[in-house]
Every structure is written in structure tokens, then in C-alpha cells.
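Email to the structure team, subject: Phosphoribosylaminoimidazole-succinocarboxamide synthase model.

Hi all, the expression group asked for a predicted structure before they design truncation constructs. Nothing fancy, just the C-alpha cells so they can compare against earlier work. One-line instruction: predict Phosphoribosylaminoimidazole-succinocarboxamide synthase, return C-alpha cells.
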Amino acid sequence: MQKREELYRGKAKTVYTTDDVDRLILQFRNDTSAFDGEKIDQLDRKGMVNNKFNHFIMGKLEAAGIPTQVDELLSDTESLVKKLDMIPVECVVRNLAAGSLVRRLGVAEGETLNPPTFEFFLKNDALHDPMINESHIETFGWATPAHIEEMKRLTYKVNDVLKQLFEDAGLLLVDYKLEFGVFDGQIVLGDEFTPDGCRLWDAETREKLDKDRFRQGLGNVVEAYEEVARRLGVQL
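Reply from the structure team: attached below.
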């Protein structure tokens, strides 16, 4: 598989085309940002940790019957992935109250949400990823009703699989966001699942072991990611 030209450069990942029109190379960089790019830094080893973490998690989800974009690990920082027609919608599940939910609704951080909440957000940095609903998605043609339903089904299935996986490692899966795309007519989980896009707390101490360490200036960001990986058995 030959890497060709840069197709897209995001905040923390770069996507390259390959000699296969249906495959891309996803490169995880050490770049780290928060607050729509207002806070930016470089964190040594982060690209490597997130690449291997993502490959591990996607493998667990594939084994549970959830189709994912990831095909294989190519190097410390690169993975071969399917080329999806991405849907510009983020699916967010929250098992415990944190982040924007606390700010919007005035609930206490850490409150258990039973059942978990589900929210849609438009993936648009210029608009600060506004919350949307199924009607918006259908009206503006971002996804069909059938695709919306499948995205919701898969997002909840991810929750069932990963809540238990993290619980067994002494961790709480507080919340997370997922992105999906279409490949050969099928809804497929894309982008990434790393501590950059979810909240993970130690089950006993509730120490934050995710990107909130960067957002809140707590330090030891990559060390926290590595601790989560170690507990899960990810080979770094």
C-alpha cells in the first residue's frame, strides 16, 4: 500500500490517499487542541498512543459486530482505513454528567444518568458544533432516516461494549462522541475512539484520565492516556 498525497489535515490527524481508491492512511500527530483551537500544544508520544489505542478499541468493537473504518495498524502513528463518505454529525452518549451538559442544564458533575442521554451535534468548527436533532439531520440531507436509526443503534451498542470493557479495567466511561460514514451502502464507525474524544475517570478516585487534563491544565496528559492503555492491555 503506497501513501500518496495529503487529503485532509485536521487538528490532530492527517489523512492521506493511497494507491487504492477505497483506502486511506490515517496519521495521528502529537498536536493537541481544545476550545475550537484556542488552546494548542504538542505532546510527545500522543500520536503513537492514540493510534494504538484506537486500533485496540476498534478491534474490540469489530469483534462485537460493530463495523469500523480501521483495517490495520501500519506503524506507530499510522493506520490503514476504509474511505468513508462521512456524515457531518456527532453522536454523543453520556453515562455521567460532565462537560457541556453540566453547563447547559446545571446538573452536578458526576451525576449518574439513567438511562444514558443521547445527543446529536453538527460537526462544524465555525459554528462551534451546535446541538441538532433528527429533524435537522433529515431536513438538511445530512443523513437518511434509516442511517440516523442505524447510527443511534450502533452508538448504544458501543456503549454496552465499552462500558463493560472500561469497568473491568477500573474505569468509568463518562461520555464519548462517535462519527459515522457510509461504505458500500453500510453505516460504518469512523474517525477515532481515544481519550481525545471521550471522558474516562478512575472508578474509585474519579481522577480524570482523558483530554480534560489538557483542557483544565491538570498536566500529565499523555501519561494519563498511557495509564488507561496499560489497564486495558494495549501494547504501546
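The helical segments are 46-63, 100-105, 134-139, 145-168, 212-215, 221-232. The chain has six helices and 13 strands. Ping us if the truncation boundaries need rechecking.
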